[in-house]
Design a protein that fits this description.
The protein is an alpha/beta fold. The protein has helices spanning about 5-15, 20-25, 30-45, 60-80, 100-115, 130-135, 165-175, 215-225, 235-245, 275-290; strands spanning about 50, 55, 90-95, 120-125, 140-145, 150-160, 160-165, 185-190, 195-200, 200-205, 210-215, 230-235, 250, 260-265.
Amino acid sequence: MDLEDLQTFVEVADAGGVSAAARRLGLSKSVVSRRLLRIEAELGVQLLARTTRGAALTEAGATFRDHAARASAEIDTARETILPDGDLRGRLRVAMPLSFGPTHFAPVLAEMAHRHPRLQIQCSYSDRFVDLIAEGFDCAIRVGYLPDSDLVAKRIGPIYGRLLASPDYIESYGAPETPDDIADHQALMQGTEAWRFMDGDRILTVRPQGRFKADNATALAAAAVAGLGIAWLPDCITYPHVASGALVAIMARYPPPPAAVWVIRTPGPHPARKVRVLTEMLIGSFERNPEIWGAAG
């Protein structure tokens, strides 16, 4: 049985259809369909019931999918074991935030591609939280405070931020002096998130309100520069605006606690070597370039 056919079947099963799997694999739909037909012909059973909306696993397909996924993972591990030291191959699918990905993380992925010419790297840039398993990602890079989950997280480094507003906004509406004062101001937010601030050793949590929301930190920084409200933003996004005077730090007595950058992967005792190598490279980038991430204070 051809290994590529086996892995393609697992992708189609997890993606819920040929089209979605083809996008993940970077292949045409016709190639994916041919691989599925070959594996079904070899097994002599129907693994997928094709519908207008995609593909659903048959009972035999559901049983075979788990065995196929384990076999593919074992073969990938065996390949890594016998490859020359440091050599990586196969495919690495990474999800990363749009706010930081192209500027802060893309150079690390490019360096990884140079070092490992046999490795295929596919990056997806979005500020939404992707479902690693359902969408077929090996790992994701996330920024901020992590919600509780069953995923495995490795901390890459800290990110510092502050509460900011434009001089025009402060002149028109004043600036909050305590977290309680935030309720009297227009907040620029990603959604319905809570903001946290440090009062000595205590963490104070507030739920701001505002009429302008965006799922991208760069867009929120632009709204703050335009005087639409106050915003909690990371230094690595806002440092040019602060340097030019377009944004001013406010409520400095109550700084936000440091957030962090994380590499997230699915549960398991050991990460794939390609995920481990990416994690190590990101940590190295943080250590070599602390200035691009902002500094405390």
